[in-house]
Amino acid sequence: MAMVATSAHDTGKSRAARNWRPDRSTVISMLSVAVFFILWQLAPEMGWVNGRFTSQPTQVLVAAIDVILNDDFFYHARISLAEFSLGFALALVVSIPLGVLLGTSRTARHLIDPPLMALYVAPTLVLLPILVVSLGIGMASKVAIVFLNALFPIVVNTIAGMSEADPKLIRAARSFGASKLDVFVRILLPGSLPSILTGIRLAVGRGVMGVVVGELFVSQAGIGYQLNTYGSAMRIDRLLVYALVVSVFGYLLTVSVRALENRVSTWRPE
Amino acid sequence: MITDVFMRRQALILGTMSFIIIGVLWQLVVDFGIVNPFFISTPGAVWQELLVQLQDGSLLVNTAATLYSFALALGLAVVVGIGLGVLAGWFRDAEAALEPFIWFKYSAPTVAFYPLFVAWLGYGTPTIVAIAFLFALTPIYANTLSGIKNVDRDLKRVATSFGARPHDIFFRIALPGAVPVIVAGLRLGVGRALTGVVVAELFGANAGLGYSIAYYAQMLQTSRMMVPIVTVILLGVILTQALSYIEKRTEAWRVVHDN
Q1: Ordered alpha helix ranges (H), B150-250
Q2: According to the model, what pLDDT value does residue A36 have?
Q3: Domain for residue B258, yes or no?
Q4: ipTM for the complex shown
Q5: Which CATH number covers residue A87?
Q6: Which chain A residue has the Cα nearest residue B109?
Q7: pTM score of the predicted model
Q8: Closest Cα to residue B212, out of B221, B225, B199?
Q9: Whole domain around residue B27: which residue ranges?
Q10: Do B2 and A228 lie within an 8 Å CB cutoff?
Q11: CATH assignment of the domain containing B162
């Protein structure tokens, strides 16, 4: 929703601003977004498409206010957020130690790598029905699918980070009498932090997807539940409001992790 | 990293062992009554069920349905993704015009728009293909864009001074140089297209592996459900490995810099 408001606004401003500093790419980007919204607004009114199926930016804006004021929005958002946070926290707690273990032990890695890779590249979401059968249709199965979906990118990137450590640094530290623990805490961990954060960033997207898929598959509450409800009721305006809320959430979280990643990447030895 | 480890013999032996260990553990936790087989079935029961589903042809039918949607979606994503990626990589203005949408596509979980596609296209193959197409599009587009855009400047300058026209540079330098990066994008796209197909099939379809997983889950028939689940995981691994192999072969096309 925020996108709708700012882009329309910014385009007007940037046209005026063109006098003092024209950045061609920015102007084109904004024009292109503006054209998209104008077309979206006009198409149903001109009868090019059926407005029942596409809604309109203005309708979505009205629906957004409506949803926030009288649609139990915060109740559903809180449930989805709780499922996501729990599953993601669990994934963090399990995946980083697991990645560290696998990254530092060759045998453990050879033993666990193939099934790990299989689950990393294969669609983990197919396990959702088993989870629903075992854990029921409530929050537990969503927490589990978020956990599973977010787990593997972090494990894989933690392993990669551990094996990226500079062997020269390790050898130097060892010859100055550093213990295994010292090497781990002072060299391996800081050295692999950028890579771990990359894994976390990828996991955010997969975790958000896990919540949505889990709730769309079967649920009694949550954003995905509302998506289903308004989809089958053909309330496209409200459907889009909820879809945009999820998108903005995923976007903000990804951007924050990326910001952290950029700050930490300077730790990496050149 | 995947192939690196797979390549070594030791890795292969330990890897095989790990699958055997998983199978044995799976059987044991059920045999000792730690986990109710109703929830996770047993390797033996799944094997039996695999034979049944192979014999009555249902596994083949479902796999074919999934692969059909997968091929359609991936084909579309390849055409559109590489097309737009080349356009955006070659013309800066095109990149600027597309960027906000791609940027949105990156951050938005595509599945959230699944009910919208159902409203537009109904349940079934068109919706499944649309979702899988959107899943696969982003990495293919992004990699093509960066492949074309990061064309080697020195090569370009040399070609220009020898009188190459823009389309010569495009077809002889930019496009071949971009191939390895594009193939890497395809590898990511393949995995995502499969995920898209199966997830959309879970929600609503009348054939396909995802459909049969959801169907058996509703019947609470865990052993039967495990067969399509294992098949999907296998398909994912095989398709990704195949693309990794192609990626290695095209690696030679990459322009190497000697400093």
Answers
A1: 153-161, 166-169, 175-203, 209-218, 222-250
A2: 92
A3: no
A4: 0.82
A5: 1.10.3720.10
A6: A209
A7: 0.84
A8: B225
A9: 1-35
A10: no
A11: 1.10.3720.10
